[in-house]
Amino acid sequence: MPKVTVEIPQHIIDDVNRHVGDGKKFVSFSDAVRTALRKMLDQLDEIDRMRGRLE
After folding, report:
1. Torsion, CA 42, CA 43, CA 49, CA 53, rounded to 10
2. Which residue of 14, 39, 41, 53 could cross-link 48, Cys pair, CB 3.0 to 4.6 Å?
3. What is the DSSP letter of 26?
4. Which helix (H) or strand (E) holds 51?
5. How many degrees, rounded to 5, is the angle at CA 13 between CA 24 and CA 46?
6. Inter-CA distances, 47 with 32, 39, 42, Å
7. Dihedral sign (CA 17, 21, 25, 31)
8. How many CB atoms lie within 10 A of CB 32?
9. What pLDDT was estimated at residue 54?
10. How sure is the predictor about 37, in pLDDT bands with cuts at 50, 70 and 90?
């Protein structure tokens, strides 16, 4: 899997880290970022479908 480097404000990192770990929603910070990106892309696809830009 390719690695990507991004700059993320500390307050967003802190917010995500509150949801990462044993018994929480995400197993790792990377898992949280991948999940967020997938959800965002799904939402953009839905918007495109509603506006007739996707079949």
Report:
1. -90
2. 53
3. B
4. none
5. 75
6. 23, 12, 9
7. positive
8. 18
9. 74
10. very high
Q: Which residue has the higher pLDDT, 38 or 1?
A: 38
Rounded Cα gap, residues 13 and 29, in angstroms: 8
In this structure, which amino acid lies at residue 52?
Answer: G
Residue 21: pLDDT above 90?
yes
- Tell me the chain's radius of gyration from C-alpha atoms: 14
Which structure tokens are listed for 11?
A: 């307050």
Give strand pairing partners of 20. Answer: 26
Mean pLDDT of 24-50: 96
pLDDT at 55 > cutoff 90: no
